[in-house]
Design a protein that fits this description.
The protein has a domain at 1-49. The protein is mainly α. The chain has 1 helix and no strands. It has one helix at residues 7-48. The longest helix has 42 residues, at 7-48.
Length: 77
């Protein structure tokens, strides 16, 4: 087996892509592919860097809390 990416192979792939997607869709597909690769690279950078600590959120103890979902308040008779 020879090289997979010979110039004639690339030309044939370009012609097939042009026939399948048309002239209007190819730039959109290229842009989407580029943005996807950029996001993927940024995601890989995020794995190597430590995450910033979450901000400390304090709740007010005097504030009334709503009943949990599915629970209703029971009235005393």
């Amino acid at each position: 087996m020879g090289d997979l990416l010979q110039p004639w192979h690339l030309i044939v792939l370009a012609v097939v892509a042009f026939l399948l997607f048309g002239a209007k869709r190819l730039p959109e597909l290229g842009k989407g592919l580029g943005e996807g690769l950029k996001g993927f690279k940024e995601g890989l950078k995020g794995i190597n860097e430590p995450a910033a600590p979450a901000p400390n959120v304090q709740q007010n103890a005097a504030a009334p809390q709503a009943p949990a979902a599915g629970q209703t308040e029971q009235k005393q008779s």
